[in-house]
Structures are given as C-alpha cells and as structure tokens.
Write a structure and sequence with these properties.
The complex is a heterodimer of chains A (118) and B (113).
Chain A (H helix, E strand, L loop, with lengths): L4 E3 L2 E4 L5 E6 L6 E7 L5 E8 L2 E4 L8 E5 L5 E5 L8 E8 L12 E2 L3 E5 L1
Parallel strand pairs in A: 2-11
Antiparallel strand pairs in A: 1-3, 3-8, 4-5, 4-9, 5-6, 7-8, 9-10, 9-11
Chain B lengths: L2 E5 L2 E5 L4 E8 L3 E9 L6 E7 L4 E4 L2 E6 L4 E6 L8 E9 L6 E3 L3 E6 L1
Parallel strand pairs in B: 2-11
Antiparallel strand pairs in B: 1-3, 3-8, 4-5, 4-9, 6-7, 7-8, 9-10, 9-11
The chains are: A mainly beta (118), B mainly beta (113).
C-alpha cells in the first residue's frame, strides 16, 4: 500500500468492553510501532515489533493491553476491559528496519484510531 | 529521565508572517532529532532531520536549529501559509538497540487569513 493504514478510524465503546485496533504497515517494512496520544499529551511509546516478535513492550500501561503481529505484516492492538482513561488516539508506525544504527530509517505513521470509552 | 518540552503550546499568526517554535530537551544520548508536522486527524509527517552534530537543517520554508550546549531546538517557519496550520512536534531518536522515539508535547499552530 501507499502508506500505513489503521482501522477503525474511530471507535466508541462502553467501559468494560474489549476493543481491537488494526494496523497495516507499509509493505516490506520489518519494524512496527504502536503509540498512544492522549489529549494534551505527547505521543507515548507502547510496543515495538521486529518481524513477528516484540523485543520491547515496556510501554504497555497494564496487562489489559496486548498486541500481536502475524506474517510480519498486520498488527492488532487489543485492550481488554476498557477504562475511560484508555480514551486516546492510538497511532501505528512502521519503518524499513528497526535498528537505530541505521540512523535515518524514518518511521511512517498511520492516521490513528480515535478510541472513546464511555 | 528523558523529557522534551515545547513552547508555546499554541500560537496564532497571520498568513505570510514568520514564526519560531521552541523545543527544550533533556535527552541523552540521541542519534537524531526530527521535527514532525501533524495535521488534524492524521499521523505525524517528518519535516526535518538533524544528527546531534548538526546545527541547522532546512526544508523549503522550514528551518530547524539545534544547540547542544543549551539543549534547545527551534523550528522556524517562513512566509506562513494557511496549510501550515497543524501541530508541530520535536522528536528524538534514542541511542538504543532499536528506534525508540521520545516525543515533545507539540505546538499547535493556527495560520489565520
């Protein structure tokens, strides 16, 4: 595809429900990242995938959050038993490679999914 | 702790005017610094990239500067256009094993006709 796509673009759910957010990275990009952007806050790192494995999931805020990536492509971020503080924009990004040694390997961002927990 | 603070939080300028956005940081060590533009409802898009050893980098009407002594970066926008209305975020790439980014809170710019 031309860029990183995410679905749905908007999701409204009730407190306590589970939600799944999807990310389709740019074809051929081996690294994939999930971020959260809360109102008035900077982007917050959640998890990083290299291929199908997640070497760093240190940003996941609680065990209600999980993510997986299959086939080295699509990734799904799952939030169980959603809480109102989970309301935010969830952004996905991908890059050709994950190593910072590459220096200029730019992360390309999707448009995000706006999650509202009532 | 790695922290990135941006100022002002928001800014309104008239079309055609110049403006400068500031970024103060306590991030070390880092590989590079990017300024991103984020339109409403869209993901951030990279405008400029500088390594820690560079002082300035231009991309059209956008010029970024980096002062390692004062730990400040700025983004200067020349001859602003209505389409410049967006949030601008300074972002540091840490020297970790992978591309770990540290984001500023952003400056929301509104260019008024």
């Amino acid at each position: 595809g031309a860029g990183v796509s995410q679905s749905p673009s908007n999701k409204v759910t009730e407190k306590g429900k589970d939600v799944e957010l999807r990310c389709d990275p740019i074809s051929g990009h081996t690294a994939l990242y999930w971020y959260r952007q809360s109102l008035g806050q900077g982007l917050e790192f959640l998890i990083y995938f290299q291929g199908n494995s997640a070497p760093d999931k240190s940003g996941l805020p609680s065990d209600r959050f999980s993510a997986e990536r299959t086939g080295g492509s699509v990734s799904t971020l799952t939030i169980q038993r959603t809480q109102q503080e989970d309301s935010a924009v969830y952004l996905c990004a991908s890059s050709l490679a994950g190593s910072s040694l590459a220096g200029t390997n730019e992360q390309f961002f999707g448009p995000g999914t706006r999650l509202t927990v009532l | 702790k790695n922290q990135v603070e941006q100022s002002p939080q928001s800014l309104i300028i008239l079309e055609g005017k110049n403006c400068t956005l500031q970024c103060n940081y306590t991030v070390s060590p880092f590989s590079n610094l990017r300024w991103y533009k984020q339109d409403t409802g869209r993901g951030p898009v990279s405008l400029t990239i500088m390594t820690f050893s560079e002082n300035t980098k231009s991309n059209g009407r956008y010029t970024a500067t980096l002062d390692a002594d004062t730990k400040q970066s700025s983004l200067h926008i020349t001859a602003s256009q209505l389409s410049d209305s967006a949030s601008y975020i300074c972002v540091f790439l840490l020297n970790t094993g992978f591309q770990k980014l540290v984001f500023g809170t952003g400056t929301r710019l509104l260019v008024s006709p």
